[in-house]
Every structure is written in C-alpha cells, then in structure tokens.
Amino acid sequence: MKSAISSSLFNSKYLLNPNPLSPFTSLKSIFLPKLSLRSITLKHSPSSSTSARRSISSMASSYKPEQARVPSALPLPSPPLTKFNIGLCQLSVTGDKKRNISHAKNAIEEAASKGAKLVLLPEIWNSPYSNDSFPVYAEDIDAGGDASPSTAMLSEVSKRLKITIIGGSIPERVGDRLYNTCCVFGPDGELKAKHRKIHLFDIDIPGKITFMESKTLTAGESPTIVDTEVGRIGIGICYDIRFQELAMIYAARGAHLLCYPGAFNTTTGPLHWELLQRARATDNQLYVATCSPARDSGAGYTAWGHSTLVGPFGEVLATTEHEEAIIIAEIDYSVLEQRRTSLPLNKQRRGDLYQLVDIQRLNSK
C-alpha cells in the first residue's frame, strides 16, 4: 500500500498502520492546520470588524441574498454531535455476491472497531460494474429479507454496532425497472432513506471509455437528504457529483455533509474526481465524503479508487490510492460556522441577479 496522497490547502500528515491480521489497510488521518504558503499578519481592531459587519449587512439589503434560494435557504441545524469519526471502506468487488456481502460486513465491523460512527461503502459494491451484471445482481430492497441480502446485512450490522451506514449503492429491482440505489441505515437498523441515482452515467470519450447506464438503469426522481445521528446528510451517487445544482439544493436544505459513493474510471478519475469533491465542498462550505471500489485492472470496468474526505474549505483531510483500504478520519462540524463566518457567502449572494429553485420544496409548500 502506498502512502496516502493529499493536495490539501493545509499541511496534513497521515499515519499508515498495517494490521497483519486484517485484509484491509487501515488509514488514519491527523490534520494539522497551518498557513501553507506564507505567513500573513493582519492588523485587527474592534472598529474594523464592526465596519466589515456593517458593509456585509449593507450588501445584504441591496443584493437580496435571501432571494437567491427559492424557497429561502434553511439555517444550518444543530447536529446531534459535533465531532465523530467517519469510515470510508474502499473494497475489492468480485463476481461472487456472497463473498462481496461478507467482505463488506467485515470492513464495516473493522471501521466501527476503530471508532467510526458513520461508515460509507462504495458504489455497486455487491456486483461487478456492468450493464450485464446489474439485472443479475439486482435486489428487491422494499421486500427485504432473502429478496435483498445486501441490505439485510447492512440493517443487521448497523443495529448490532449502533452506527449509521451509508450503504454505497447496489442494483435495485422495482417491477421491470432497475435503479442504482443507496440505502441509509440508522443505529436502530431501520432504513432511514433511499437514494436512486438521479444522473445516469452515459458518456462516450472516443478511444478511452464508453458506458451507457441508461441501457439498463432508470434515473431516480428525487434528491435525498436525511437527518441522522451524525448530522444532516445529502446523498448523491457517482455521476451526481458533477451537477452542482444538486449539492446547492442540499446546502440550502441545511446539510452538514454530502456523501457520494462513486466509481469514477481511470480516464476521468485523475482529472475530475478530487477536483469535483473539493469544488462541491468549497462552493457550499460543508464536508464531502466519497467512497470508491478498489481498482481491479482485470475487470471490464476499472475504478479509479482514491476515496476521500474533504473539508468545508476545500482541504483534503484524508485520502488513499487505488488499493483496498479503510480510511478513518474526523469530522468536526464546528468548523462549518467558522468557515461561513470568515467567508459569508450566504450573505453575499446576488438574489437580485440569480436564483436557484428547489422544485421539490417549492411544490411541497
């Protein structure tokens, strides 16, 4: 296992702790914030701070920032806890479904044993990523039990370990339709939310990669935000991360954290994977967590890997390369208000010039 990679705006240090008894490599992050480029000295006085607040307030009255979100943005709610550890389980996936389920279960248990209160799994972790495989490995999630062994495992483990699980995604069968679906389970083992991938992965890069999810999958029809024991979380799956409007809607609904299980490929991954995560986090001033399958160069679809946690300033807090790994990293929600106070974007939006309309919230009023 190579050492962790970071392109953080801050200096970060990572400790790699191989466990010879585990099939996974444990990766734990230690975040040491420092100014990275040069020391900056600012003269501060109460009068200058007061003047700045008055200037922002003046802009707010003339620019109508509250009208930039329709309906108006919700305030950031107080989370049930301020600090906790997240576990990102970057898993190898094979054609053996029973093995994949057992392997994911072992990874979740290891992450929880290392202190994770929230565990995130990869996109399509119970099946090879292919249009031929989706119908074969699909499960009836609503029926549960033997009809959905993958979610039955997630329910059992979340309840036994008393943790929240963002269950990556699996192919879901509903009648004659197939979806790419993420299930969220709470510490009581109950299904708290279900997100069906909204934006299907249909791309054609000549000489590189062509994939059309729409050949077998149906697009979801609703954004998904869920209140959990570890905060308010917005859910997207892989290609969903490319659409900033979805992340903006989640931020306007008061999300603390966005979770994107995803399987970017080796063509777009090096160019866009980290870039998009940092952009979503920076633009919306919240945390972004992603989890990819580990890379299998012999598979029909080759995942990029590099599961990552990004902070609200766009800083990479923890990441890995393409092999199997379990990343344990700390999330501190108190940082959200600090960043939003320093860069008060919500008070500086130009509601007199543009608006983002949340159709779902608007129609529910």
TrEMBL record:
Residues 84-333 form the CN hydrolase domain. PROSITE patterns: CN_HYDROLASE (PS50263). GO terms for cellular component: mitochondrion. Residues 45-62 have a biased composition (Low complexity). Residues 43-70 are annotated as: Disordered. The keyword Hydrolase applies. SUPFAM superfamilies: Carbon-nitrogen hydrolase (SSF56317). GO terms for molecular function: omega-amidase activity. InterPro entries: C-N_Hydrolase, C-N_Hydrolase_sf, Nit1/2_C-N_Hydrolase. Keywords: Hydrolase. GO terms for biological process: asparagine metabolic process; glutamine metabolic process; oxaloacetate metabolic process. It comes from the Eukaryota. PANTHER family: NITRILASE-RELATED (PTHR23088), OMEGA-AMIDASE NIT2 (PTHR23088:SF30). This is CN hydrolase domain-containing protein. It comes from Arabis nemorensis.
